[in-house]
Amino acid sequence: MSFIHETQSRKFLLFLILFIMVIAGSSLFTYQQQKTALKDIKLLHDYATASALVEQKIPADKAAAVLTNATITAAGKKIAAQIGISEHTDLRFLPILRSKQADFARMLTLQTLALSVLLLIGSILFLWKREKLYLLAIQRINRFVDGDFSAHLPRAGEGTLYRLFAAVDSLSSALQAKSEAEHNARRFLRETISDISHQLKTPLSALNMYNEIIAGEADNPSAVAEFSKKTSQSLSRMESLIGAMLKIARLDTGSISFEKEWHSASELVEKSIEQLRLRAEQEGKRLSFSGPSQTILCDLEWTSEAITNIVKNALDHTGPEGQIDITWERSQTMLRLFIADNGPGIRPEDFHHIFKRFYRSKSSLDTPGIGLGLPLAKAIIEGQGGLISVQSAPGKGTVFTLSFLTDL
């Protein structure tokens, strides 16, 4: 009986209870009126009979016997029938009863009419308020259908109806989330296609040009070798671009399931910089790492790729004699891994854009890269519940901080 918790239903139920009480009171009043009417009929009949007996000079004792007699005999019924009094006698010929019947009929008619009007008004008010509520709900649901989820169904009451409204509101929230997810997915797809198209445009144009030069210089081995090398570089750049974009797309869509396990920090860092040691040596730069014996809960392959991208970015932006140091420390709640370099630092106008896809600073246009390494690293770290932050100032180098929650 949860409907009694609803305000309108509770009011209507109270109205019905009051209406039943009014009917009971009306019935009691009618009963009392009927008793009074029957008494009046009996008295009027006795008064008329007594008056007739007096006019016929009947002695008082005999008149009293007539008035108090309760015995019905066949002879008496026969005499009454002779003067037109029987069970078949029409009320028109019984003036006393006819008068009382008319009064009683008027009273019952007025009572019935008053009770009917009261019930009708109460029911109409209840149905009118309920219809207003339904119309409001229909209006809001139509807005949901049109994609407008800013409004909500009425929530001010309790009971089954408002629980239904709450369920519909929950459904609308789910539809809104789904709609936003689909919208974001479509926007992401458009942006991804646009980014890939834009980024592939340059290397594809270069490939076409190199192929034309190679075809035109077929008899010039040195030119063929030079532009074949450039062709290979363009293909490698395209391969890196497509691979990075596919990884970011998989991370953004949540299609990657990180397999997090406990790994030592030194193992993670060693794996991350292993493939960069030769490059650092060739460029005259130093790579080092140090830290206490600690473990990190992470996906080894993906996290090492994120660190590799950050270290590679540091190598790209440090000159000869450059130094990249990787250290780590543990606090009560997390382990922080620091990747610091002594490069030129990040300019203030570039600081808030370094994690944007394909962003290249004006000062780094002559350095290798496609502008996806740092965004990919950020997506990997945050996808595992970690945090990535950066501190830098022009001329003072840059420090990237990777924070991982520890097992509390």
UniProtKB/TrEMBL annotation:
Residues 195-408 form the Histidine kinase domain. The chain crosses the membrane at residues 12-31, 108-128. Its EC number is 2.7.13.3. It comes from the Bacteria. GO terms for biological process: cellular response to phosphate starvation. One of its GO terms (cellular component) is plasma membrane. Its main location: membrane. It is found in: Membrane. It holds the Pfam family HATPase_c. CDD domains: HATPase, HisKA. Gene3D superfamilies: 1.10.287.130, Histidine kinase-like ATPase, C-terminal domain (3.30.565.10). PROSITE patterns: HIS_KIN. Keywords: Kinase, Membrane, Phosphoprotein, Transferase, Transmembrane, Transmembrane helix, Two-component regulatory system. It catalyses: ATP + protein L-histidine = ADP + protein N-phospho-L-histidine. PANTHER family: PHOSPHATE REGULON SENSOR PROTEIN PHOR (PTHR45453). This is histidine kinase.
